Each structure stands twice: as C-alpha cells, then as structure tokens.
C-alpha cells in the first residue's frame, strides 16, 4: 500500500492549510502555520521533493523578491464515495477537495456487500478512466449504517441487510492499494459541511441528517466526535413513545419511525385514506404510489394535511434537538438530507420548538439552518475523511 502523507506534524499542518484555504504564498503559509522561516523552507522543500506540494504560479508581490504560490500537488487525488440505500455516488477530487468528476448509479444494497462493492469499484474505475487517473491518494466511504470506525465495517445495519461485520474498508483497500476510511453517512456529511458548507465557520456544530435514515454528526472543537465505540450521534432510535409506529430496527416509537422519509409517506397514505388530502389522493391515483417528493410538493402547494404531518414530524425532531443543544451547546445546528420542499416547513417548526423550550444560555444566539450544500455533502465529506487521515489530522 502506498502512502502520501506527511513526515511530521508541521508538514501535516501545511498540507491541511493548503487543502482548506487553497494556494498560498510561502510567507502566508508560514504565518498561518506559525513556523519560522527556516523551518518553513525546509518543510516546504521536502513536501515539493516528495511530490505532495507544487508551485502554482506567481503570488501578488509584496515588494522585494517575487514569491510563488504553493498548492497541493496535482498528483494528489481523493475519491469520495457514498453507498446506498438506493444509489452509489462516486466522485474524485483534487487535493483541495473540489470535485473533478462524478458518477452515480442506482444500486440495490440488499444484493449484499460483495456485489455492491464490486459495482462501486466498477463505477470508480469509470471515473478514474475519464480523468486518466492512475493512483488515488486516499478513499473515503459513507455507509447508511452504524460503522465500527476502527474496523471499517457496518454494525447491525437495518438498511444494509447481510452487511453486518463485513470489512468494507479492507475489501476496498485490497483492490485500490491506498488508505480507505469508512464512516456512517451523518458523520461524513458533517465533514462535508465542515469543509465546504456553513459549518466551515464553526468549531462546534451539529449536523442533523434526515431522509431515509436519521443521524447526527457532532463536530466539537473543530474535529468530528465519534465517541468511545464510534456510536456518537446515533439519535435515530431514541424512543419517543412506548406505543408508536414500528421502526426499521424492530422497536416501536423511535425518532426515525416518526421522522424518516418512509414515516412521512406512511402518514401521507393515512391522510389519503382518511380523506384529509385531496392533493395526495390525486397523486396516488395518478402514480399508483406516493413518494416523499410528493409530500414535499404537496407541502409547498399548501395542502393542509401534508403541512400538518410534516410539522408533526419536525416537532418530534425539535424536542430531541432541545436536549442535544442544551447538552452540547453547539455554535450552529445544520439540517440536511430533507426532500425538496420539506426543508422550510420542517425548519420553521424545529426552530419554534427549540427556541421556545431552551434556556437562553444554550440557544441565545444559536442559528438553526438548512444545509447550503446541494447533494455534495456526502462525496466531499468522504474525500475529507480520507484527506484527514492521509494529511494526519485524525
Ligand atoms: Zn428504531
């Protein structure tokens, strides 16, 4: 296995500065890293010699000797991959984690890990071929599952039947010959927010991932917090009531059983059955099924039943968030993964619950916002996961 990482902590800091802030002059880089001139020259020369950093053209002159910009070498390439539950999404990025090429394909993860990993490698092969790319520096993978981070394998994943304990990291690393990191999708998307989204400006934030499954990524003190057994942020199965709807985990009354996309569709079908939503009834008659996107469209169109069921789900989530923000005291809460049309209604209800029910110390200046990344949080976050490892930040 090849390794393109730094030799020491100073080099790691320089690589992360160039990754996060883009090309810099030597002087700017030295100031930002807090390194002496002699140390900076030695470490930069070493990084250039190793092919990890290169010159990117002249910097704006500050007078005196002209200096040149430094950037992460063009040989540094990361892959960010998100798997399932219904799609594989593969992107290759440069050293600053800008997406260079990307492909998506539908997948049925119930075919099992071997078949899904084979499809993933095939798709990654196509992206690399398009770019004429030989080696990868590192690969990050997001799974819709609890992940034992040190082992790189999913743990009892309801959304991935047959995947329990499968060594996703080792299977990919054996094929790709580079470092591979695997984490759950909420953590990975939080890293995407930290790199390219609203989270960039905050050292402490919560990223709440909605959608098919619900999760929460915690960035504390500028680093993703995984906890003792990488189970931190697992809010999906916090029990909201003893006699609630059945959850994918087999229990009843879990948060996810009230707030997931499937739960919203279930409530929408109930509204149709009770004659409460002519809009959704018409959609069901036309398409033969209702999707969460239909619920989003009905909400935007002002359908009272759709709006009520979305607000009810958001209220439950808001109550859980009251506990989380008081306990963690984040600088911001970012909500992502909502289907088109649902975000504003959910956000309004969540804000209303959190601000009404929290003491001012925790929420006095707390922004609660929708993610401003479109659908790139996953692949950029996965590339960031790989780069944090290769650039020594883990
Ligand atoms: Zn559950």
Automatic annotation (TrEMBL):
<comment type="similarity">
    <text>Belongs to the ROK (NagC/XylR) family.</text>
</comment>
<dbReference type="InterPro" id="IPR036390">
    <property type="entry name" value="WH_DNA-bd_sf"/>
</dbReference>
<protein>
    <submittedName>
        <fullName>ROK family transcriptional regulator</fullName>
    </submittedName>
</protein>
<dbReference type="InterPro" id="IPR043129">
    <property type="entry name" value="ATPase_NBD"/>
</dbReference>
<dbReference type="InterPro" id="IPR000600">
    <property type="entry name" value="ROK"/>
</dbReference>
<dbReference type="Pfam" id="PF00480">
    <property type="entry name" value="ROK"/>
</dbReference>
<dbReference type="InterPro" id="IPR036388">
    <property type="entry name" value="WH-like_DNA-bd_sf"/>
</dbReference>
